[in-house]
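Quick illustration, no need to memorize.
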Amino acid sequence: MNFLSYKLSLVKEHLSIKVLIGVTLFLLLYQYGLYSALALGLLILLVTHNHKLLINFSLILYVVFVGDINEQMRTAVHVFNSFSLSYLLFNRFGFHISQYPKISKEVSIFILLLIGVMVITSVASNHIVVGLLTTVKVLYFFIVVYFFYSLITSQRDLLNYFISLVIAGIILSLSAVMTLLENGLDLVGLVGNEFRTGGFVNNVNALSIIFAVLFPILIIRYIYAFSRLEKRLILLVILILASGLFVTLSRSTALSIVISTLYLFYHYKKKIFFYFVLIITLVFLLVVLIDPIQQIFLTLFRLEQGLSNRDNIWTLSWMMFQDNFLFGVGPGAWGFEEFNYFPIALNSFYGREIVDLYRLTNGFNCSHNFYLIFATDMGLLGLIVALLLPLIFFLITFRVNKKVKKLLPNLYWLPIGINAMGVGMFVRGFFEGLGLITFGRVSVDIPFWIMFMILIFLDKNIELCLVNLSIKKNTFIS
């Protein structure tokens, strides 16, 4: 009887997944017949009933299709992922709250503090509803991240998450390159900054985040890889991602990759570090001494444009912070107060650029500085929370590095790469506000938090990875 009940539960489980995926597939095909790749992925899940595949596919959907590509598509992905991840989580733990995985104490305190500060500053602002809605979005984002965290059962799952991000990065990179080709490959226009493309995401700075996250981890994996085939595959992936980075021409992401790579080599490959510094020095000398190369370099990286109006936006946001020092203007309310602190004439060239940016982003906080965004929206309390994030990140990173180096040396490359990624991302945060906590924008923040979540899992559950490794060894011996 127990066996019969067990078989019936399996049938119900598979049937539920079939119905869930089948209905979603029908809706997506009905609305978006051209998205054959998405439909194919759902069909694979429908045939295989593979829970792990479903989880990783959901991650790819969040990164690739929850951007600016289509509002209806974004909604469909949110609904599908929310239902499927909720189902898998409930199927595993049910109502046994005590069995739900715990996260690091520091991260729990940080999230509670963030939500608490957002609620307080929302109530203290002139835009209470906007602030509370923004808080709900952030809460939803962390729930999504927790779903992925709770569904990890082994070391293999950690690697699958990383591979899923790599697949998403390849898709986004190719989408950017294909958009460029569809619009006509014009190298003169590209170098002259007449055409920058974000592919599926549209926002070039948002698309480039995945590159800042993946590059340092791929580089350290290449160094640690023993197989020639694996090294070649990693090189191919790096080239594909580099082509996407070139098309976006994102200076903040390029800076993040350079800094994270320097940090990586300095701490773990000193010899390569000196070679890397030598190459950078030679490039710098060529740019300084040879005028044609200098002009190409200045134009390519848009250095002749200076800070691309960032200095005016920083001035605007700094004035806003000074005037709302303790509680800020409220989460998500920057756009409502922006024109009260305009530092230049509205009808000037740069003034019109800021106005166009306001219209394009619907008043989203465009301070181009993660720490300044928190300061303007939530005042001094928000700035403290923003500064706590890198502090907690590196505290956990250094703790995990020691554990993994001692207990799981074969996986040591992963926390090393994530550590270097963090260095680059937090420096990038001084020039770009996207990619860390963007008030609920799942697609741009989830790559960083998935990698951070891997660290948190290793910090809390490294013993589970050791048990899985031991089982594999015993099975092999048997």
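The CA atoms of residues 61 and 112 lie 27 Å apart.
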